[in-house]
Amino acid sequence: MVSIEITEGELVVRVRGWHKVLAMRGVLRIPLSHVRAVRARPKEAYFDDEIVEGWRGVGTYVPHKLAAGLVYTKDGPSFYDVRDPERTIALDVDGENVRHVVVQLGDEMPDDAVKRIRRAISSE
Question: What are the structural domains of the chain?
Answer without folding.
Answer: 2-122 (2.30.29)
